[in-house]
Amino acid sequence: MSWELLLALLALCAPLLLVVQLVRFLRADGDLTLLWAEWQGRRPEWELTDMVVWVTGASSGIGEELAYQLSKLGVSLVLSARRVHELERVKRRCLENGNLKGKDILVLPFDLMDRSAHKAATKAVVQEFGKIDILVNNGGRSQRSLCVDTSLDVFKELMDLNYLGTVSLTKCVLPHMIERKQGKIVTVNSVAGITSVPLSSGYCASKHALRGFLNALRTELVDYPGIIVSNIYPGPVQSNIVKNALTEELTKTIENEGDQSYKMPTSRCVRLMLISMANDLKEVWIADQPFLFMAYLWQYAPTWAWWITSKLGKKRIENFKSGVDADSAYFSSSKKKAN
Q1: Where in the sequence numbering do the catalytic residues fall?
Q2: Which pTM does this prediction carry?
Q3: Pick from 52, 86, 166, 68: which is nearest to 118 by CA?
Q4: What is the mean pLDDT of each run of 10 residues along the chain (339 residues)?
């Protein structure tokens, strides 16, 4: 084969390869490093067995599903949230459907905002299981309200819970991991910690704060390569996050949580989280399109991202003011147009 022919074939293959990669990206539900790890990386079933995993926010949503999937991997589980009866329900289901016995699961209820309780909770976990291999910071709440209408108390609550609560618990667990020179600190952030969206100004602020804190912490731990600090950024996931979101006032609840069916199934999100833990990935984006595309755009082309967000955000605010769910109404109308 002549060099001319080889170069001609390469020239023909290059556009085809580009098209194939574009199609793969359009169908992707995670960043490229994560999807490579899913295809070629280490399996959670191999890497996470026999570990002690502490999950906050374990009474519902991502935390609950994470407990169920971890219970099948032979780990020791610590389940934390405020509602002890819900934690007991999650424990019972883990025992029914998983590979664990009662002694393998510790129900440890506490309020993430009660920072004075974090040191005692950490001590209780170490006394029960002797170590903490993985801390999953999953507790938190979202927001659905315009900044101008929102009480400052709501902003304080979001920062106290989503940011300071996570920082406090991480600081309590960190000395134990430094002493052992190993461990994983996995924090469930949000795509809103990369982008910014209207109706969630306080929520976005708390998630951006977490990103800055954890990235700085990772650098401070450079002398401890066995301690992995991992930021997980899910997009919309099927859970109670909208139902439990804060509004203009602390005492006001969401009137219409809308259709959540367009969001990523919680089981898929958690499976990708487990893959990220098994492969020690430091920054992980988990989202269907177009949310994944927007994360890339905000990361690499923020001017374009701001322009697109301002257009989509206007529709989101209009939906909210008309009394319907800000997101599901938009996506439902988009699906109808597509059909």
Answers
A1: 203
A2: 0.91
A3: 166
A4: 71 72 78 94 96 97 97 96 97 94 96 96 98 97 95 98 98 98 98 93 97 98 98 94 91 79 93 98 96 94 93 87 67 46
